[in-house]
Amino acid sequence: MKTNKNAKSWKEHINQKYGEKGTESREKFEEEFETFRIGVLIQEARKKQKLTQQQLADKVGITKNYISRIENNASDIRLSTLIRIIREGLGGSFELSLDL
After folding, report:
1. Where are the chain's structural domains?
2. For residue 100, what pLDDT band results from cuts at 50, 70 and 90?
3. Residue 20 DSSP label
4. What does the pLDDT look like over 11-59, one tens digit per residue?
5. CA 40, 66, 63, 88: dihedral to nearest 10 degrees?
6. How far apart are CA 17 and CA 14, in angstroms?
7. At how many degrees (to 10) do helices 64-71 and 24-48 cross?
8. Is the pLDDT of residue 10 over 90?
9. Count of CA atoms in the C-beta half-sphere (13 A) of 70
10. Which CATH number fits domain 13-89: 2.60.40.10, 2.60.120.890, 1.10.10.10, 1.10.260.40?
11. Which of 1, 40, 50, 80 is least surrounded by Cβ atoms within 10 Å, i.e. has the fewest?
């Protein structure tokens, strides 16, 4: 099996593209990635429950446009709104952890 001598690990790629952990550019990337992940998780849960964006928005009392912006990583989301989407809209529970 041939190996690519230029191949990099994911960690090496991220370090090269966004800088080492603790740098401003890396922190910005990590924050944006977490926001992206939240949007994907909400979208997957919504689709699993066969809800449209409008139906989810109606259950939570927000706009379809806001749900769309969250799912497409185009909007910051307030923690209280995130909790409402998960609990009231999707019938789920919210857990938070902190890694230091």
Report:
1. 13-89
2. confident
3. S
4. 898 999 999 999 999 998 888 888 899 999 999 999 999 999 999 999 9
5. 40
6. 5
7. 130
8. no
9. 23
10. 1.10.260.40
11. 1
